[in-house]
Design goal:
single chain, 258 residues, alpha/beta, 2-enoyl-CoA Hydratase, Chain A, domain 1, 2 domains, 47% helix, globular
């Protein structure tokens, strides 16, 4: 299943969504924002999909942001586009299956939202990061919320206000990303993580992600009690029983998602 600006494929339990505008540094088009939601629908409802990987086409850019240059007048059409983007990064952040950002190059502006919406972010050592909106009179509004959830406030404000590009190592030190791999080992690193996630219990990860999201704003005592109940729910699954038996029998578990 493909579209000109956005590609979708499933292989080995991994659904890969690729922003396919290499000549535009994978700036995402307005039409692709809608299609992105559709592809996430496919990935969420397809029981064969256990992991979602987000990436960009080519070797130079992950995503340089949303291509909304024609709709910056503040009218209702541009507001609808901004809302669509905001809903998309919110959905990514709350997606029930594990998500991995494969950052193969420049990750700028709105691309930062796609990256930070994912659970795990693996970047090439040569990748560059940043929020350059301030340099053209704009401001990284929607993605700011995700930035502050991942980066200490002072470092976040320095990045946002200066609009400078950061190296992959700087992004790692700040907490923007989770791993940096040498360019020559990048795909091996990504595939290793995707394969590892695809081998875990789908229902265990789904229940766990939902539980962590639910307790984010709870007081400590309430959160711990709530999570105790969720642990009992996970422990009652067939996958949990299979995992324990596989451990005792010294073999690899065969999870079914039940």
């Amino acid at each position: 299943m493909t579209d000109k600006d956005l590609l979708y494929e499933v292989e080995n339990h991994v659904a890969t969504i690729t922003i396919n505008r290499e000549a535009q540094r994978n700036a995402i088009s307005p039409d692709a924002l809608t299609l992105f939601h559709e592809y996430l629908d496919f990935a969420e409802t397809d029981e064969s999909v256990r992991v979602v990987c987000i990436t960009g086409a080519g070797e130079k850019a992950f995503c340089s942001g949303a291509d909304l240059a024609g709709s910056l007048g503040g009218d209702s059409d541009s507001q609808a586009l901004f809302d669509r983007y905001a809903n998309l990064i919110s959905r990514l952040a709350a997606f029930p299956k594990p998500t991995v950002a494969r950052v193969n190059g420049y990750c700028l502006a709105g691309g930062t939202g796609f990256m930070l919406g994912c659970d795990i972010v693996i970047a090439k050592a040569s990748a560059k990061f940043g929020t350059p909106e301030v340099n053209v009179g704009l401001f990284p509004m929607m993605i700011g919320n995700l930035i502050f959830r991942n980066v200490p406030r002072k470092k976040a404000m320095e990045m946002i206000l200066l609009g400078e590009k950061l190296t992959a190592d700087q992004a790692l030190d700040m907490g923007l990303i989770t791993r940096v791999a040498p360019d020559t080992e990048f795909d091996v690193e990504v595939q290793g993580v995707l394969s590892a996630l695809a081998g875990k219990s789908p229902i265990g990860m789904r229940l766990g992600k939902a539980a962590f999201a639910a307790v984010e704003q709870m007081p400590l005592e309430e959160a711990v009690l709530f999570l105790g109940g969720k642990l009992a729910e996970v422990a009652a699954t067939e996958d949990a029983r299979e995992g324990i038996m596989a451990f005792l029998e010294k073999r690899a578990p065969q999870f079914t998602g039940k």
